[in-house]
Design goal:
The protein contains five helices and seven strands. By secondary structure, the protein is of the alpha/beta class. The chain has one domain: P-loop containing nucleotide triphosphate hydrolases (Rossmann fold), CATH 3.40.50.300. The chain is globular, with a radius of gyration of 16 Å. It binds guanosine-5'-triphosphate and magnesium ion. Magnesium ion binds next to helix 1.
């Protein structure tokens, strides 16, 4: 056993990973026996693609053609030591209000109460400006003192110049510091080293 838990040891390359469960209500949450990273963001932003890239699988987590399909918290266990949790995407207008409120309750209480939660990765599209719901989530996480890491994804769709400009605009729009965010592409894997070392800061558990 090493002294420190390091995600870098197995994330970003092929590692053992198992689907554990889909959670639709709090009572279904698996026991918090491993450190946990949750992935949040608007529908279709690339949450599942990022998780697949992290564990080097093409289609472990289903990448959706129809946005807003995932309505549960999906738990994946990497190397029998770290939970990766794919959260339902927000901001999809076609979801009925009743369902929307139910998810919001589930996700809010999960984020507030989950003791093993080490980091909430909030993913936004580098090409777009900060949306109200992104700002609300980020503000809420900051207000509650929850560990937040921003990932600005789909960087492959922009030139290097545009990336820097957009990233700075998102920093300002969301109120996050440069050290709290990573520019990433699930398509090319760009930003992976940055993402892993950032995650390690949150997972620095003896
Ligand atoms: P929901 O589960 O519906 O909320 O979506 P999601 O956030 O999990 O997004 P998903 O990973 O399913 O990706 C949505 C679409 O964006 C897919 O067509 C992906 O191929 C594409 N995509 C995701 N990440 C990237 C990226 O870094 N670059 C490019 N070019 N496309 C991406
Ligand atoms: Mg998804």
């Amino acid at each position: 056993m090493s002294d420190h838990f390091s995600a870098t040891e197995f994330l970003g390359k092929s590692c053992k990973v198992d689907f554990i469960t889909s959670v639709f209500k709090s009572s279904q949450l698996p026991s918090p026996e491993y450190p946990e990273i949750a992935f949040a963001g608007r529908s279709n932003v690339g949450k599942s693609s990022l998780i697949n890239k992290l564990v080097n699988r093409r289609n472990l987590v289903k990448v959706s053609s129809r946005p807003g399909k995932t309505q549960s918290l999906n738990f994946f266990l990497a190397e029998e030591s770290l939970y990766l949790v794919d959260l339902p995407g927000y901001g999809f207008a076609k979801v009925p209000r009743k369902i929307k409120n139910d998810w919001q309750g589930l996700i809010t209480s999960y984020l507030e109460k989950r003791q093993s939660l080490c980091c909430v990765v909030v993913i936004v599209d580098l090409r777009h400006e900060a949306k109200t719901q992104d700002r609300e989530l980020v503000g809420w996480l900051q207000m509650n003192g929850l560990p937040l890491l921003m990932v600005y994804t789909k960087a492959d769709k922009l030139s290097r110049n545009q990336r820097n400009k957009q990233a700075a605009a998102l920093d300002a729009g969301l109120g996050v510091a440069r050290e709290e965010r990573v520019v990433f592409s699930a398509k090319t894997g760009e930003g992976m080293a940055d993402l892993l070392s950032s995650l390690d800061r949150y997972l620095d558990i003896p």
